[in-house]
Amino acid sequence: MADNAKAFHHEKSDAEKAPVMGASAALSVALQEGDASDRGLQTMFEFDPTAGSLKWSDDEAAARIFGVSRDNVAATSDAFSARIHGNEDETRIAAFAGDRQSYSCEYQLKRDEGDGHWVEERGGWIGAGAGRRLISVIRSIETRKRREEQLSWLAVNDELTGHLNRTHLKKALDAKIANMISGGTTGAYLMVGIDDLGAVNADFGFEAADKVIAEVATRLASVLSPDDRIGRVAGTKFGIIISDTDSDHLRQICVRLLNVVRESVIETKGGVIAASVCLGAVSLPQQADNSNAAMTRAEAALDAAKRIGKSSWSAFTDKTDVVSMRRRNTHMSDVILTALNERRVRLAFQPIVADLDETPKKFECLIRMRGDDGQNIPAPEFIPAAERLGLVHLLDRRVLELALNTLAVIPNIHLNVNISMETVKDFVWAEGYIALLRANQELTRRITVELTETQVIDSIDASIEFVSEIKRLGCSFGIDDFGAGYTSFRNLKAMDIDILKIDGSFVTGVSSSRENQLFVRTLLDLARNFGMQTVAEWVDNEADAMLLKGLGVDFLQGFLIGKPETNPDWLPDGAPNETPQRAERRQS
Questions:
Q1: Which of the four, 108, 199, 294, 342, has the lowest number of CB atoms within 10 Å?
Q2: Number of other residues whose CB lies within 10 A of the CB of residue 58
Q3: If we measure between CA atoms, which residue out of 60, 55, 59, 38 comes closest to residue 139?
Q4: Residue 402 to residue 309: CA distance in whole angstroms
Q5: Using one digit for the tens of pLDDT, what is the confidence trace for 537-563?
Q6: C-alpha span between 465 and 474 (Å, rounded)
Q7: φ/ψ of residue 496, rounded to 5
Q8: Is residue 514 left, alpha or beta, with left meaning phi > 0 and alpha meaning psi from -120 to 50?
């Protein structure tokens, strides 16, 4: 999707816009951490029970495991036991005493440097009489233990910020509310959202946006008391549990949090960024006696704060949650359904070209909707509402109908249409969508159906099945906003993708960004290996366009190529509301 005006399916929530590439990549790195010199390190020793002595098969390896010189490697069982951190394993003690035939245990060794080192020891007795010996193998498992510790930490904490993740903040919130109820105390739960982080991601890149998220988290935590808790509950949102506060104190806390974020700019590799947040607050336990209610109502209060403007806060009221939201939902539901019934949903066509000087024959269809007053309704107002109200299926269906009508009257063009994951996951609506394609199979070879990468990741099995069906009918399939998520190589291959559309945040300003150039090159190599074509979105200047073509991008899309038009020269009356056959029957 390349509409720089952020039209249908290009309008994402703050959480969706948040850059998340750091999480999966950093986890992979964390799982590989460890002292490479200790990997695969092991040796064997022989214990003589009569002399109490140890003989090592590899003195050098033993010295490295113990963290000592070769001369100081334990030569007796007592010296070895003295190196074990904490209590010695009982099975090991019994084995050395001759009371067990074999044993296996894990423990930490105390090294001269003061740090502990995890090892695994396995052994057993061989021989008989005076020649009886305990033969054991000891090997380093430090790297494995570090992995386990890292995974255990990640199960509780958000990797980017180090604060609690949503699941464990929710548990802490339930526990805090229960304590407040039993102890007769009061507190608050705050939902904090970073303002316009999507714009930061687009203008500066995901690394800069990650830096903003991490720095905002640090600043928020810096003004909290030791009894307060903070966690990251979504891509751009934080939850904060405040202990022992009343309404007057809550106001002071909210203002302090707003100020600490905007008191100075945040320096990133892409440039300095002035960040701000909005905040929604709910009193505990008066307004919420469980975590679900607290989070839902704080979110409603945050939405109210965002409507006020940047760096604002709002306290939850009954009007915030029940009356206003219900009224807005009812109103927007009527607006969408009426626009569909009155044929006021239209398509805007944005050109996609292989070369700057060619006449466009390929276009992306972007949804537009006029109000009953004739004015266009901004996509951010009706797309999220349609998804929230379960009406996005109808919009998906209407976009496809209009695209098919256009293909029927304009024989030499190719159209890209977007579909929501809500339609793909819903068996009834997905089958209806596919049935419409099946009924117009003579046109399907000129259609590319697009899903955003982040949507694909959320429901990969449904995506693979849907893609298989539409490709069987002759459609092509494309992944939009590629680079914003973490689609694995295996999933890319399984979905048989024809087109990868490079996320616009990596395209804008690519001619002057070495990091974006490296990303695009990597993506192009990936696409070539899988036999996929590529489209660069958000191309808005010739320097970027020339560089992208030089790197090997197949198609270009963006304002430099052309803005979306509802009535282009090749279709002056816009997308036909009816199929040509039906229109002919009506006229006759």
A1: 342
A2: 15
A3: 38
A4: 37
A5: 999 999 999 999 999 999 999 999 999
A6: 15
A7: 50, 60
A8: alpha
Q: Which amino acid is at 124?
A: G
**CA dist., res. 273 & res. 124, Å (int):** 63
Q: Please tell me the distance from the alpha carbon of residue 406 to that of residue 458, in angstroms, as a whole number.
A: 32
- Cα distances (angstroms) measured from residue 548 to each of 110, 256, 258, 362: 56, 46, 41, 18
Q: Where are the alpha helices (DSSP H) in 223-285?
A: 247-262
473: exposed, middle or buried (Cβ count in 10 Å: 0-12, 13-18, 19+) = middle
The model's pLDDT over 102-132, given as tens digits with 9 standing for 90+, comes to: 999 999 998 866 678 899 999 999 998 888 9
Convert the pLDDT of each residue in 331-343 to its tens digit.
788 889 999 999 9
- The residues facing 335 across adjacent strands are none
Give the model's confidence band at 323: pLDDT under 50 very low, under 70 low, under 90 confident, else very high. Answer: very low
Decide if pLDDT at 583 tops 60.
Answer: no
Q: What are the two backbone dihedrals, phi and then psi, of residue 539, each rounded to the nearest 5 degrees?
A: -75, 115
**pLDDT tens figures, 480-503:** 877 654 444 556 667 788 999 988
Tokens of 526: 């990936």
Contacts of 535 (CB under 8 A, 6+ apart): 2, 352, 478, 499, 500, 501, 502, 553, 554, 555, 556, 557
State the CB neighbour count (10 A cutoff) for residue 153.
12
Q: What is the enclosing helix (H) or strand (E) of 519?
A: helix 514-529
Describe the chain by its helix, strand, coil percentages, rounded to 5: 45, 20, 30
Q: Would you call 528 helix, strand, or coil by DSSP?
A: helix
Global pTM value: 0.50
Say yes or no to pLDDT of 268 above 80.
yes
Q: Give the integer Cα–Cα distance in Å for 587 and 582.
A: 9
